Amino acid sequence: MPAYEALYRKWRPQTFDDIVAQPHITRTLVNQILRDKTAHAYLFTGSRGTGKTTCARIFAKAVNCLHPKNGNPCLECEICCDAEAGALTDIIEIDGASNNGVDEVRSLRDNAAFMPVRCKYKVYIIDEVHMMSAGAFNALLKMIEEPPAYVKFVFATTEIHKVPATILSRCQRFDFRRILPNDIAGRIQYIADHEEFSVSDEAALRIASLADGGMRDALSLLDQCAAVSDDIQISTVEEAVGVAGKESVFSVLGNIAQHDASSALGTIDALYRQSKDMTRFADELSQQLRSLMLLKTAPNDTGLLQCMPDDLEALRGLSEQFTMPAVLEALDAIRQCCDRMTRSGSRRMELEMTLIRLCTDLKAQQGDTSALSDRIAKLEAQLADLQKNGIAVNPSGAAQKQKSNKDVLATNLQTSTPAEKESLPPVKNWAVILEEYDRINPSVTGLLSGSEAYYITKKDGKEAIHIVVKNRLFTKLFSKDDAIALGGCISKILGKRYGLGISYADSDKPQTSPVDVLLQRAKESGMDVSAPDANQL
After folding, report:
1. What's the pTM value of the predicted model, to 2 decimals?
2. Longest Cα pair distance anywhere in the chain, in angstroms?
3. HEC profile of 29-83
4. Residue 232 backbone phi and psi in degrees, to 5
């Protein structure tokens, strides 16, 4: 009984016509072969599984075929048959990862000096060429630039940026595109029609989505699913590959929107008990968050989405529960979580921490936004009442007040006496925080030179950090974006978000700015113009 052959090997394209979704490349190569104007060196680049090596093999057969058909190999002559069986010495495949030294390239160069044994051309196919050393590339340069008339090179790489420019300039470059999900699904259905199993349209699209543009990955997944059942449905794919169902993904996204960390952790626990891959689940979350981002940006252009038609309504419902900033923050957090998972000993823990942060941070942000909006509306109403009651407000002073009020909201200016500071616990890592902040905003960090920071507890029990600065110019340059960045550095170093309060070391000195005059008038009228709470930032 013959050994089983994997689907991606069994169904590897044999002619240019069989290659899926690369017509811009196959058409060019066919025309070159028909006109006998092929180049001496080609460079095929693109992501994995898009047909680079396959196309190189077809090209090697086509230029040597005894009876070519419209630029394609005939697959019947002795050259084509021996090439397919790997018994043709004039078509040499080399793995650039394991043959990446100068000695190997010198041996190749010496062998290239000999005429081909049976073929018209001696074709060297070097896969993963970016893995070759700098010395090996240098040894190839002269050979690639002026090879013998009977020698052709085909290089394949997934990382084109690692190939020296001196090599690129001597080759014809062809960029292989990622294969679209619909094209992959169509190929899967074609193969299923010729095999002993069936695949539903939904399952084919699900496999195509998981393959991420690579046909080889898709056929490997199809092979895996066919071992589970002869009738492949979406449930078969999820069982065979170990991915969570879309219900779990949408459930967790709904928990994030509702700030329900407990339910999100319960879903993660259930998936973990079913041995689902936490990294793949996090990646699925990021894919659906991308769909939410696109829905909120271009709600009428659903062609940008990579989802099943039945999932569109569920995604629309979820998109209404998120603001765009919340979607972007969640997407960024999940992508960072995916990166950390590759280095973490506990992938489940990484995902759980990320979900807890999202559920709590998004809730806090939404609450802060609402509170700030209410306070701004209240201050605007108070200013209008001042003008209505006949209190003169200088236009330039009013403009100055609006600017100062914005700074107050951004930096939460407060005052504190030296006696109060002595009883507050200092932030021991303040120098480390400033060093981290200096990488982001060195111009503002200089104004924090000599500053001190203390932990304070508000009346409502919430913790904040109070910063005592010595440079009055600080608030002139310190914007809302700067405050957010500083808060992020504090969170990164201390592992927790805090409100911010700021005062001067000489804050007891009287202020004489137009803003202070306007605020004093407001106080004399009995209006509340106190600064916002630190935790509103």
Report:
1. 0.59
2. 104
3. HHHHHHCCCCCCEEEEECCCCCCHHHHHHHHHHHHHCCCCECCECCCCCHHHHHH
4. -85, 115
User: Residue 324 is encoded by which pair of tokens?
Assistant: 């765009």
pLDDT tens sequence for the chain (537 residues) = 567 778 888 888 888 888 888 888 899 999 999 988 888 899 999 888 888 889 999 999 999 888 888 888 988 888 888 888 888 888 888 888 777 778 888 888 888 888 888 888 889 898 888 888 888 888 888 788 888 888 899 999 988 888 888 888 888 999 998 888 888 888 889 888 888 888 888 888 888 888 878 888 888 888 888 888 888 888 888 777 777 777 888 888 888 888 888 888 998 888 888 878 888 888 888 888 888 888 888 877 766 676 666 677 788 888 888 888 888 888 888 888 888 888 877 888 888 888 888 888 765 555 445 555 666 777 777 777 666 665 555 544 443 444 443 443 344 434 444 445 556 788 888 888 888 888 777 777 777 777 888 888 877 777 888 888 877 667 666 777 777 888 888 888 887 888 877 777 654 444 444 445 455 555 555 555 454 444 444
- 315 close to 224: Cβ distance less than 8 angstroms: no
CB count in 10 Å sphere of residue 235: 15
Q: What SS3 state is found at 12?
A: coil
Cα-to-chain-centroid distance, residue 4: 38
Yes or no: say if 141 and 170 are a contact pair by the CB < 8 Å rule: yes
SS3 320: coil
Name the DSSP class of 212: T
Residue 462: both structure tokens together: 């919430």
Helix (H, G, I), strand (E, B), or coil: what is residue 297? helix
Cβ count within 10 A of residue 42: 23
